Amino acid sequence: MTSDVLSSKELSKINPVFGQLSFDNHEQIVFCNDKDTGLKAIIGIHNTVLGPALGGTRMWNYNNEWEALNDALRLSRGMTFKSAITGLNLGGGKAVIIGDAKTQKTPELMRRFGEFVHSLSGKYITAEDVGMTTADMDIVREVTPYVTGISESKGGAGNPSPITAYGVFMGMKAAANFRYGSDILEDKNVFVQGIGHVGESLVEHLTNEGAKVTIADINQERLEEVRAKYDVTIYGGQDIYSEPMDIYAPCALGATINDDTIHKLRADIIAGAANNQLADEVKHGKMLQEKNILYAPDFLINAGGIINVYAELENYDRQEIIRKTENIYNTTLEILDRAKANNITTNVAAMSIAKERIETRKREQQK
């Protein structure tokens, strides 16, 4: 039987790494294992044309190793384009640790992971992500300099979540300007799905501007806490995607825009912090365009976090972090205008700008 008649799932079993659907000419994939600490991690380095691969470490209790590898591949690819479109001299990388962050994470495990990061000699620089904290990055910093997002008391930029949320807010306002002719979000119905650190900070910005905010999360205790703090509405229905809303802000895990949800969506705008919101970039980007739902590309508007940690590498101050993050507004408008002018999806427009920058640098390096 030849490979062209095998399903993608069958091919991924024969070629478990290069045959993965999310493999996109990644430069390097590192599998890390340590029996003593229980560490099982995967580091994906997608592209280093613009600079060292920077991207956070996610600790998650994946169902299997295939899921973990797929996540590392998808996320590291996304970081390449996030840095490129934001104008940072960084490549794309990401790490995942397989395990429960609440019960299996130990200082010893984090140090051992840091040693694996150090063995790459700066080709990959890590930071915090889901399941990680600034304190964890401080531990990694004990064994390697190739880590960002460390505590401000140790010379770092601190928790990137507030800056990430601010960038999402800027991108959302730009999308509102494009759709409604005004970026004022007062009285707009905004559904924020996922109330982690970034989600809560976004809720704060929205309520300060007078938006009508509805929140959803699997953690009921967290919902009650955020409602009490910001006087917002907890979603009590059964299917958030069927609800009429002005703006849908996915701020949890990715792929919430998929075959099951996209037909039901009744939003004007999608603008959130989650990575990889489109389950299929091409297919679902086109479907959103056909439904006249304006999608603010996630890898652009959630770039505040990487801007924040990049400050540690370039030694620029808080004022410059804010300036670069606010520029997400202008870049979002540029992308939306390009998409409209060329009758392409906003995701394609964003990717084209990012890829142009990478190709330009590659040509310069080859001279």
List keywords for this structure.
single chain, 367 residues, alpha/beta, 5-stranded mixed beta sheet, 44% helix, 16% strand
Explain what this protein looks like in three dimensions:
- With 367 residues, the chain is α/β, with parallel strands linked by helices.
- The chain has 13 helices and eleven strands.
- The chain has helices spanning 8-14, 65-86, 107-118, 134-141, 161-180, 197-208, 220-230, 281-290, 298-301, 304-314, 318-326, 328-342, 346-366, and strands spanning 28-34, 39-47, 53-60, 91-98, 124-128, 189-193, 212-216, 233-234, 247-250, 269-270, 294-295.
- The strands form two sheets. Strands 8-7-6-9-10-11 form a six-stranded parallel sheet, with helices on both faces. It has a five-stranded mixed sheet with strand order 1-2-4-3-5, sandwiched between helices.
- α3 (107-118) crosses α4 (134-141), α5 (161-180) crosses α10 (304-314) and α5 crosses α12.
- The relative contact order is 0.12.
List the helices and strands and how they pair.
Layout: H1 8-14, E1 28-34, E2 39-47, E3 53-60, H2 65-86, E4 91-98, H3 107-118, E5 124-128, H4 134-141, H5 161-180, E6 189-193, H6 197-208, E7 212-216, H7 220-230, E8 233-234, E9 247-250, E10 269-270, H8 281-290, E11 294-295, H9 298-301, H10 304-314, H11 318-326, H12 328-342, H13 346-366
Parallel strand pairs: 3-4, 3-5, 6-7, 6-9, 7-8, 9-10, 10-11
Antiparallel strand pairs: 1-2, 2-4
Helix pairs in contact: 2-13, 3-4, 5-6, 5-10, 5-11, 5-12, 10-11, 12-13
Helical fraction equals: 40-55%
Helical segment count: 13
Number of strands: 11
Radius of gyration equals: 20 Å
Q: Regions with pLDDT < 50 over 5+ consecutive residues?
A: none
Give, in order, the helices and strands: HEEEHEHEHHEHEHEEEHEHHHHH
Main sheet characteristics: 6 strands, parallel
Q: Distance between termini?
A: 44 Å
